[in-house]
Each structure stands twice: as C-alpha cells, then as structure tokens.
Amino acid sequence: MTNPCRLTVFSLLLAITGSAFTQATSGNIIGDGNPGDTVVISGDSNGFKREISIKSDGKYKLRHVPIGSYHITFIQADGKIITLQDVQVRPDATSRASTPGKATEVSENTGNP
To answer: How far is the C-alpha of 103 from the C-alpha of 83, rounded, in Å?
Structure first.
C-alpha cells in the first residue's frame, strides 16, 4: 500500500473505533401534567435550568439533559406549585416525572365482587 492509502485506511479505522468509545453525557425527562402548566427542571449541582410548557395533550419531553439529579417544579395555572425532588437523569436513559395524580395509576383486583 502506498502512504496515502495507509493514511486513508488508518483514518477510517480511527473514526470507526473512536465512535465506539464515546460516552453518553445526557438523558431525557418526560412526564404528564395539566395542559398549559409550566415545568421547570433545575439541577443544583450543574446549574442546568430549563422551563417548558406542557402540551395540549398533557405531555412534555425534554431531551439532552445533562446527567445528574434534578428538581422538577410544576407551576399550575391556579398558582399551585408542586416540586419533585431528586429526579435522576442517567446516560442514554429516559426518566419520568409527572404531576402527582397524573401518573399512570395501577388498580389492583382484590377478587371481591
């Protein structure tokens, strides 16, 4: 192989193996709430803060949140404020944080008619 060919092959191999060793540094937060309410995501340890509105379908999604621990604050239209503490964002994972009472509820069947 000539030098230009070696350089091209080496560059290609380096690009392929380099991408295999990259580490994820962010995750996502999703949840449910009341349409039009505001969600504030804040991380004390990293200074990250983002404010978004809940969509008309009652859902919100925030992508590319740096890994860490967050406070999720729901500011409702009537002024009520609900804060969830210690919501963990892990690399390449999605965390769920919903307004209390809006999360999917599981009902148990006790077997009684």
So the answer is: 15
The pTM of the full predicted model, rounded to 2 decimals, is 0.68
Burial class (CB in 10 A: 0-12, 13-18, 19+), 74: buried
Map tokens 């925030």 to a residue.
62
Sign of the alpha-carbon dihedral angle for 93, 63, 32, 82: positive
Q: What is the CA radius of gyration of the chain?
A: 22
Mean pLDDT, contiguous 10-residue spans, the chain (113 residues): 59 55 85 94 94 96 95 94 93 91 41 40
Strand partners, 69: 88
